[in-house]
Design a protein that fits this description.
- With about 50 residues, the chain is mainly α.
- The chain is about 90% helix and about 0% strand.
- The chain is built from two helices and no strands.
- The protein is elongated.
- The model has no long low-confidence stretch (mean pLDDT about 75).
């Protein structure tokens, strides 16, 4: 498992990997934050 992660990190150090990481990371954060907000609003609506 650790070897696979190291290989992935080495791949990300290449130029296309860095570009993909810069593109995907904000999208991933957006998805995570919106899902957390949706979950929180759903819970708050359930409590009301």
């Amino acid at each position: 498992m650790a070897r696979v992660l190291l290989k992935l990190l080495q791949i990300k150090e290449t130029a296309p990997g860095v570009v993909m990481k810069k593109v995907i990371q904000p999208l991933a954060w957006f998805v995570v934050l919106t899902s957390v907000l949706a979950l929180a609003s759903g819970v708050s609506l359930g409590l009301v």
